[in-house]
Amino acid sequence: MGGYFSEIFYGSKSLLIGMGITFREFFKPTVTVQYPYQTIKMSAKFRGHTELIADEEGKPKCGVCGLCERACPSSCITLGSISVDIEVDGKVKKKKVLSKYELDFTKCSLCGQCVENCSFGALEFSKEYNLASTRKEDFHFNLLKRLEERNA
Amino acid sequence: MSAPIQLRPDETFILNVGPQHPATHGVLRVKMEMDGEYIVKSETVLGYIHRMHEKMGENRTYAQYLPNLSRLDYLGALGYTHGHVLAIERAAGIEVPERAEYIRAITVELNRVASHLFWFGAFVMDLGGFSPLMYAIQDREHILDMLEAVTGARLTYCYYRFGGLYNDVDDDFIEAARRFIPRMRKSLKKYAALVTGNIIFQKRLEGIAPVSAEMCRKYGATGPVARGSGINFDVRKNEPYSVYPEFDFDIPVYHECDSMARYKVRMDEMEQSLRIIEQGLEKLPAGPIMAEKKPKNIKLPVGDFYQAVETARGSFGIRIVSDGDKNAYRLKLRSPTYSNMHLFDEACEGMLIMDALAFMGSLDLVIPEMDR
Amino acid sequence: MSLTLLNVIVAVVIAIAFAAANAAYLVWAERRGAARIQRRPGPNINGPFGLLQPPLDGIKLMTKQLMIPGGADKILFMVAPVLAMAPAIMSFVTIPFSQGIAAHNMEIGVLMIFAFASMGAMATLFAGWGSRNKYAVMASVRAVSQNVSYEIPMLITAITVVMATGSMDLKTISLAQAGGFWHWNIFPSLHSPLMPISFIIFFICSLAETNRAPFDLGEAESELVAGFHTEYGSMGFGLFFMGEYANIVVGASLTTILFLGGWDCPFGIFPGVWWFLLKIYILIATFIWIRWTFPRTTIYGLLNLSWKILIPISLFNLLLTAGLLKVF
């Protein structure tokens, strides 16, 4: 019989303690970010999709070696190159220049293998995270075009 | 007039819990033969999100397989990638700098706290209390912010590399982690008062769903499920790896075998993880974070390699059979919830459905990890 | 006679409007309150403080297609939502909000409200059985056994109050408590020293009768998907939802009248309907507060609470009150 009443007593006490906690929480300020109206700054190491890095002239640093293409686990990178003639020390030489850098972001898992394997240091992660679309094609990024747009 | 619900000859009926059911937290299907509210027999149906991770491991190079590991268990992803890099490093004989190992231990433990916090919230929500989930998510958010600042991702990290880390931690991270520990301890006290002490919660868990130690051994259950049944087994202590021998921490073990014991094990583990993080931050040595001598394309010697690590859900093992090529000949992932889940069918016979679903919550299932 | 009938019709219209407005805005209050407890803002986009959310939700629910699942019992399926909402509105007819504000005062007001409250269980049963869904059937069976077992202690406590005041008329019960908070039934008196406990029992029972957390076994969403209204969409669901909140208002009003002195002012100043409203909204806020604090009980925990704790204590209280009334 004593156990019966002490259980009622301690049970009710535990319920009141719980209600006290939620009562205190009620008066605390909200902690959420109202997303479309407020945004937060991404941290410096945040990994969005990749972007090409430009050199001083605004051209991509990429040397079209294809290491990123091969390192990618999901094969979401497609490279294209054209060879152009450039003059080095008065001699005309052939050089491969990037003509196409397509990133299929629908497949990308942001592992960073392409950035790490790049022997020219030509890739970086963007801070882009506001990505939403109803069409798959919107995530087929043309990084070369994006670079030109950024330069302009 | 409606046709009556078709009863079987013995007046039982089949209830399909899942693949889309709020209590299964993913695409798990449990076929239950019910007698009223009592479960007569249950059959777990897996495979709804099987993604062939093991087969992928045989086709991709070891480095390319890194992102896959974090897609197994999206709540405690770092533990799984840790197991993978440890296995490869041991097989290839790569020396990892001490600083890198310390940072790995700190981040894994942070991830373990985050995982347990989310489990705590989801578990209480299974029992019908919604607010604790929000409080747990608030605390978890601090951890995710910290990990994002280091790893660049919030959930599916790809941070560890063979021989070290992707990038170093900065002072901001160390400062944030130091600030986080006392805050988390305060929150744990709040959870103890709000949830653990609550009479309704206690009545729902105490003595419910007993899982004996023998049953745990029979099905190969590990982690908090086994430790709640009195089996003192934790890979971090029993088969030490990484820098865990350097830390002073306890393995919480409860002998009650019920859902409450499993709950308490996880709540105590959070406290122990905080202790490890505290010590790790103190002892964190300076130095490089990447091994100096490291082959560019990793090829494992011919052989059979196995590495077990303790993740938030139990003992995760990765077995790599190598034929000397740059990808594995056979890769086997031993995922802890796969074994833990199989307890369910035997243990839930004769239980009420609401107790059975609370029991399922106490197993801490993450379905993508189970199906792989 | 015709004037009385007109009176009743006007009052019923007002009661329906009051119940509907309350149901709609209590949803808003609950969502805002729950959000504050969980440290988030809650609905805040539509209108100031999200105040336009309830009408917009209503429009959305009304414009959705009414689906009747194949094999369902059409009549029961259609009747159930109406049956969930109607008794709650009917109960408003006899509730006195103030000395002069009552649609139709009856000598047996307490009995009438309990009679209508029992019909709520029927709505749940019809909905569960009619929708031909295993989850819904299980939920409705649970909800009915819950309602039956909680009506007993609720009625016993109500009888205790009726015995102490000597009337079943809600107006008389309110008036008997007039003149300051120390006259209220919640405070122990010579005839009924255990009244505070009765109040708590009555409050718990009204939580269980309205299927509110922690006793929301009929719609335990983590076990039975959405409980008895799993198959309902559009306004069918809307009526269940509104019925729940209308029932809460009835429960809070009844608690206020039986225990908290009705429209009586605690300090004897400005007596009027606003005190009644203030009291019921404080009680409703407590309902909401409790819902967002506790986990759900089990079905056997719930029945144990009723049969092993609430019924013995309320019976003891009834006997004690009866004895004391005889002695003094």
Provide the structure class of chain B: alpha+beta
Helix/strand order of chain B, N-terminal first? EEEHHHHHEEHHHHHHEEEHHHH
User: How is the main sheet of chain A built?
Assistant: 3 strands, antiparallel
Q: Return the domain count of chain B.
A: 1
User: How does CATH name the architecture of the largest domain in chain A?
Assistant: 2-Layer Sandwich
Largest sheet of chain B: 3 strands, antiparallel
Helices and strands of chain A: which structural class?
alpha+beta
CATH-scheme architecture of chain B: Orthogonal Bundle
Chain pair forming the biggest interface: B-C, 35 and 34 residues
CATH topology of chain B: Cytochrome-c3 Hydrogenase, chain B
CATH topology assignment of the largest domain in chain A? Alpha-Beta Plaits
Please give the order of strands in the largest beta sheet of chain B: 1-2-3
Q: Strand tally of chain A, please?
A: 5
**Low-pLDDT windows of residues of chain B:** none
Q: Count of helical segments of chain A?
A: 4
Overall geometry of chain A: elongated
What report would you give on this structure?
The complex is a heterotrimer of chains A (152), B (372) and C (328). Helix content of chain A is 29%, strand content 23%. By secondary structure, chain A is of the alpha+beta class. In chain A, the strands form two sheets. A three-stranded antiparallel sheet of chain A has the order 2-3-5. Chain A is elongated, with a radius of gyration of 28 Å. The mean pLDDT of chain A is 82. Chain B has 372 residues and is of the alpha+beta class. Chain B has helices spanning 53-59, 66-69, 77-92, 98-126, 131-151, 171-196, 199-205, 213-219, 223-227, 235-238, 259-283, 336-341, 343-347, 353-362, 367-371, and strands at residues 13-17, 29-35, 38-45, 160-161, 164-165, 303-311, 314-322, 330-334. In chain B, the strands form three sheets. A three-stranded antiparallel sheet of chain B has the order 1-2-3. Chain B has a three-stranded antiparallel sheet with strand order 6-7-8. In chain B, helix 4 (98-126) packs antiparallel against helix 5 (131-151). Chain C has helices at 2-37, 53-63, 74-94, 109-130, 134-165, 170-176, 195-209, 234-259, 273-291, 299-327. In chain C, helix 1 (2-37) packs across helix 3, helix 5 packs antiparallel against helix 7 and helix 7 (195-209) packs antiparallel against helix 10 (299-327). The mean pLDDT of chain C is 82. Chains in contact: A-B, A-C, B-C. Chain B binds chain C through residues 1-3, 5, 13, 15, 21-23, 34, 36-37, 124-131, 134-135, 138, 194-195, 198, 200-201, 203-204, 352-355, 357, and chain C through 34, 37-40, 71-73, 76, 130, 132, 134-135, 137-138, 142, 213-214, 216, 220-223, 225, 292-301.
